Amino acid sequence: TQLLEQSPQFLSIQEGENLTVYCNSSSVFSSLQWYRQEPGEGPVLLVTVVTGGEVKKLKRLTFQFGDARKDSSLHITAAQPGDTGLYLCAALLIQGAQKLVFGQGTRLTINP
Amino acid sequence: GAVVSQHPSWVICKSGTSVKIECRSLDFQATTMFWYRQFPKQSLMLMATSNEGSKATYEQGVEKDKFLINHASLTLSTLTVTSAHPEDSSFYICSPKNRGLNTEAFFGQGTRLTVV
């Protein structure tokens, strides 16, 4: 079973459109992170959300942490071809040994 | 951000041989090292977690005798894929971490392993 359910897993849209990616879980997390990964490289951290209901903006990207700290969303406004990539949500588990687990990822393609 | 060096970035090996992947944290002490595997078009799957000076903890389904992890120092961890088979072909990524909760995770550049 997947601890973090990410949807959609694949998304292909036209330049200029808006989109939202979701990351859901039945577990409560102290924080949740969003990463972006380019082919052949390691993930790069975009944002960490910590407080329930928190909204963070990074240029055209808006990240929200659910009030119950079980889910998060990433909204991209006016998508551009440069936004193409694999977007991953991740949560740090602190039950016993700490470990960072990832959602399935959303492969986003923005067509010019 | 922290500097993590993973080497090699890609390797091709023959079936039955072993391959060693190195991960170095260049500017902080990695008390914990996470090793991930990523198959094409999929997410990162945690393989094992190692703490400096102790044995690694492997995730369910990951063979500890096949994926040997050494974390003898606070700046270097290695993953050795022993007796590699084509199904081991994947993208392997390390992620060193120092102590403390909610600290940012850093990742190596990844190693593309192809077993022929």
What is the secondary structure topology, with strand pairs?
The complex is a heterodimer of chains A (about 110) and B (about 120).
Chain A: E1 5-7, E2 10-14, E3 19-24, E4 32-37, E5 44-49, E6 55-58, E7 61-65, E8 71-76, E9 85-93, E10 99-102, E11 106-111
Chain B: E1 4-7, E2 10-13, E3 19-25, E4 32-38, E5 45-51, E6 57-58, E7 67-70, E8 76-81, E9 90-97, E10 111-115
Parallel strand pairs in B: 2-10
Antiparallel strand pairs in B: 1-3, 3-8, 4-5, 4-9, 5-6, 7-8, 9-10
Architecture overview:
The complex is a heterodimer of chains A (112) and B (116). Chain A is mainly β. Helix content of chain A is 0%, strand content 54%. In chain A, the strands form 2 sheets. In chain A, strands 2, 4, 5, 9, 10 and 11 form a 6-stranded mixed sheet that branches. A 5-stranded antiparallel sheet of chain A has the order 1-3-8-7-6, with no helix packed on it. The radius of gyration of chain A is 14 Å and the shape is globular. The mean pLDDT of chain A is 93. Chain B has 116 residues and is mostly beta strands. Chain B is 0% helix and 47% strand. Chain B has a 6-stranded mixed sheet, with no helix packed on it. In chain B, a hairpin with a 6-residue loop joins strand 4 (32-38) and strand 5 (45-51). Chain B is globular, with a radius of gyration of 13 Å. The A-B interface holds A 6, 30-31, 33, 40-45, 48, 50, 86, 88, 90, 92, 94, 97-105, 107 and B 1, 4, 6, 9, 32, 34, 41-46, 49, 51, 57, 91, 93, 95, 97, 101-102, 104-105, 107-110, 112.
